[in-house]
Design brief:
Strands 2-4-3-14-13-12-11 form a 7-stranded antiparallel sheet, with helices on both faces. The chain has a 3-stranded antiparallel sheet with strand order 1-8-7, with no helix packed on it. The protein has 10 helices and 14 strands. It is of the alpha+beta class. The chain starts with a helix and ends in a 6-residue tail after the last helix. It is globular, with a radius of gyration of 20 Å.
């Protein structure tokens, strides 16, 4: 694939993903002392042989410097493919568990958006109404014109909450800190707006932190319980959960690793599987599996989660005059989902990234092709898309269209 295609895909899919015991360090690389690459375990049903071969090739050779494991599910009217490769961890080198749970990061936003849209369908809230009307104690007058819809599609102009540090080592040192949603909102609200509501689009977690608090306010219930009762339980997503303040992944899971620079100028991998996610909350803390996310994707696109005209909010971008903040590129987010053209087809979905884990749920609108993956990236919050993930996306949908 040419460099232009890579740049287009990276720009569209790599989104701002926005003290305890020390995790073990493992030497990076697959040299003589590193683990041998595992084989690919895969099954195909009806999918074209060329597609199956491309998907197998995309996840072959793991672990490598960029990823330690990959779990992939492709489905749709033109066949299905399931595959896994890599290792469960770099100590045992046992094969990756294809049914493993993983941190799905910002895929959480799709669950949050679906819950808000259900509440709108029930007339518990109004998407066009000011969010301050529901949360007057949290949203000051300076942000009084921000609507619920503008939180959903990231056109609010509310800046990000201030964080505990700006480097990887800072984040690692504070990986078990607790972040209160209300404190994060207070931090954001203490700053000047980035732009007038509805005039630009800036993808930031703070919008969905506010939506989580909005769900709690209008229901009188916890965010996690509402999503559980409205989405997880009805769809039978038994391996999907919210960790709360628990930094562990419970149940079967493959370990996540992050590459850190060493004093000698080299690189080491640290096991970052155990890491608190309270900074993500309603914007990015969900734990799931590829099977659960595939089921959720199909049900969502079929109108079985959000019903009627409100489902269109997820597939509707802001007006053409709204551009991406800081770049001037066209807006690409609706309510929870983003869009791009791959292989000549519009693909809607959501990426996610937590330390050690990259994920995606994506599909064509007609569900002729769906893709869910978890890639245990060694730089899951880096500026460039993981090469394994890139290969999977292109194998599933084709290269991004130029222009």
């Amino acid at each position: 694939m040419n460099s232009r295609a890579r740049a287009l895909l990276a720009a569209a899919l790599v989104l701002g993903i926005a003290s305890g015991p020390t995790a073990p360090a493992v030497a990076a690389g697959n040299g003589p002392s590193g683990p041998a690459a595992s084989s690919v375990s895969a099954s195909a049903h009806g999918v074209r042989a060329t597609d199956a071969a491309a998907l197998r090739a995309a996840i072959s050779g793991l672990p490598d410097d960029g990823a330690t494991a990959a779990l992939v599910r492709v489905a749709g009217t033109d066949g299905s493919w399931r595959g896994s490769s890599g290792v469960h961890d770099l100590v045992s080198n046992s094969p990756a568990d294809p049914d493993a749970r993983f941190r799905a990061g910002s895929v959480t936003k799709v669950f949050t958006a679906a819950t808000v849209l259900q509440l709108a369908a029930e007339h518990e809230l109004d998407l066009g109404r000011a969010a301050r009307d529901y949360l007057p104690d949290l949203i000051p007058a300076a942000y009084g014109r921000v609507s619920v819809r503008q939180l959903l599609n990231h056109t609010s102009g509310i800046p990000a909450a201030r964080t505990t540090g700006g480097t990887l080592e800072d984040w690692y040192a504070h990986r078990f800190d607790f972040h209160s949603p209300r404190d994060m909102v207070a931090s954001a609200m203490g700053q000047e707006p980035e732009f007038a509501p509805g005039t630009s689009q800036h993808y930031l977690n703070i919008n969905y932190t506010l939506l989580g608090l909005l769900i709690e306010k209008v229901t009188g219930d916890t965010y996690a319980h509402q999503v559980g009762e409205r989405v997880l339980r009805p769809l039978g997503l038994r391996s999907t959960s919210f960790p709360g303040a628990d930094p562990r992944i419970h149940g079967p899971h493959n370990h996540g690793y992050q590459a850190f620079a060493t004093a000698s100028g080299g690189t080491e991998l640290r096991d970052v599987t155990v890491w608190g996610t309270t900074d993500g909350w309603a914007a990015g803390d969900i734990i799931s599996t590829t099977a659960d996310l595939e089921r959720f994707t199909k049900a969502l696109f079929r109108g079985q989660v959000v019903r009627g005209p409100l489902l269109e909010e997820m597939f509707t971008l802001p007006g053409s005059s709204v551009r991406t903040y800081g770049t001037g590129k066209p807006a690409q987010f609706g309510a929870g989902l983003s869009v791009m053209t791959l292989g000549g087809r519009q693909v809607w979905g959501k990426t996610g990234g937590r330390w050690g884990y990259n994920s995606v749920m994506a599909a064509t609108r007609d569900l002729s092709r769906t893709l869910v993956y978890s890639v245990n990236s060694t730089d899951a919050k880096g500026q460039d898309i993981n090469p394994t993930a890139l290969g999977v996306i292109v194998a599933a949908f084709g290269a991004p269209s130029a222009g």
